[in-house]
Amino acid sequence: MKIIRSRDNLFVKQLVALAHSSRERKKEGLTVLDGIHLVRAYMDAIGEPVAVAISESAEARAEVLELLSRCHTASRNLLADSLMTSASTLDSPAFMMAIVPTPVAEIIPDNADAVLALEDVQDPGNIGSMLRSAAAAGVRHVALSKTCAFAWSPKVLRAAQGAHFSLNISEGVDLVEFIWRFQGQSLALVAQTQNAKALFAMDITTPTAILIGNEGAGLSAQLTSIATHRVTIPMPGKIESLNAAAAGAICLFELVRQRKALQ
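Above: the chain's sequence. Below: its structure in token form.
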């Protein structure tokens, strides 16, 4: 590969724009994977990226060569280290990046066995962490409201650590409409003060949608009112609430615990 050293190179311009602009990613329908772990996870789960970028100093690394050997149609681009630094969004710049098509979500079935539904969750780290928990729990379908952070941003991808590629992530969902048509039960996670049932006392072995709301405000009154049940996580300590990602993980793995007990 011939090394690219100019910031005016068309591929470099595209890579930088996609890595640093959510608007550009949405417009082009493309996502940047920042780091070899995410590139490998994508290739293992889906296949070849559209293009890969490798930093000059990492050209001979064994793990880079192994992934390049699996790229038959992808555009390969060797970048000067300074260009990779300007493109990467990591504190310690990646030595491998890739451009991939943003996967198109499937319609979540009305009778899905389990769904994680997020309303107005703003922090990319929280969304990424919950996507990772959903993938670990075997919950495939995730619905995000229009006001959630973009699921395919670099920060969310980094927090999810490859979970995206085993999930069906549906964005811009009207959660009220979805809950009305969902054929299973829906659990609205609320604060302890809202006269709710304890999560651990609920039967969630049947088709269930778990609703998690905004980090500060929680779920909207409308979504809470139409949910089948309002539930809370018992907290005997002196803390009144949990981080959204922690609360989501507890709900997801209570679902796992109950369903494993039936096997």
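The chain has two domains: 3-101, 114-261.
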